[in-house]
Design goal:
- By secondary structure, the chain is mainly alpha-helical.
- It has a domain at about 20-30 and about 75-165.
- Helices cover about 70% and strands about 0% of the residues.
- The protein contains 8 helices and no strands.
- It has helices at about 5-30, 40-50, 70-90, 95, 100-110, 115-120, 135-165, 165-170.
- Helix 1 packs across helix 3 (about 70-90), helix 2 crosses helix 3 (about 70-90) and helix 5 (about 100-110) runs antiparallel to helix 7 (about 135-165).
- The chain is globular and about 55 Å long.
């Protein structure tokens, strides 16, 4: 398998997993009324980083930045691609030929490090949402969302292999 094919597969798996995570969040919002993270706030955080401000108290009170929603959503999908790259880097290209659930779920759990130790503190919510009104609820929702991402890594990898078997796997 060439470098271009590998890169395209990583893109597909990362974007597919992130899409599955987002569809799950959309369903939870519509069926159960559970709001998910507003990715515009992620864009706002990124926009303020360019101005040298990395922490907020809370992010909702920070001035909006131009194109924050677009920046936040793009960053969200790029992050999903990076975690897919980490999974395939850790498991090797063999994972592309035979996607398995356990490593994908482990990567989903690893990915929860980002909100717990980067986003939530930077947004003024504390480490692992410790400064929110219901920290355990926020933590459970983050873990659930990121396990859904892990499941999405597996499903996207499996669909990719089913629809477009990798050249390296056919030999």
């Amino acid at each position: 398998m060439g470098t271009a094919e590998t890169a395209l597969r990583i893109l597909f798996v990362g974007m597919g997993a992130t899409l599955i995570m987002d569809v799950s969040a959309f369903i939870q919002a519509r069926v159960f009324g559970l709001a998910s993270l507003d990715y515009g706030l992620v864009g706002r955080w990124l926009g303020h980083m360019f101005q040298g401000r990395f922490r907020h108290s809370p992010i909702m009170t920070a001035a909006p930045v131009r194109n924050e929603r677009l920046m936040g959503w793009v960053f969200h999908y790029v992050t999903g691609i990076v975690f897919a790259m980490m999974l395939i880097g850790a498991k090797g290209l063999v994972w592309i030929c035979n996607p398995t659930l356990a490593p994908a779920l482990v990567m989903g759990l690893v990915s929860v490090i980002a909100p717990f130790f980067i986003l939530q503190p930077a947004f003024g919510f504390g480490v692992a949402a410790s400064k929110t009104a219901a920290p355990n609820v926020a933590r459970c929702r983050s873990v659930t969302a990121h396990l859904t991402f892990g499941l999405g890594l597996f499903v996207a990898g499996w669909l990719l292999m089913l629809l477009f078997p990798a050249s390296l796997c056919l030999s």
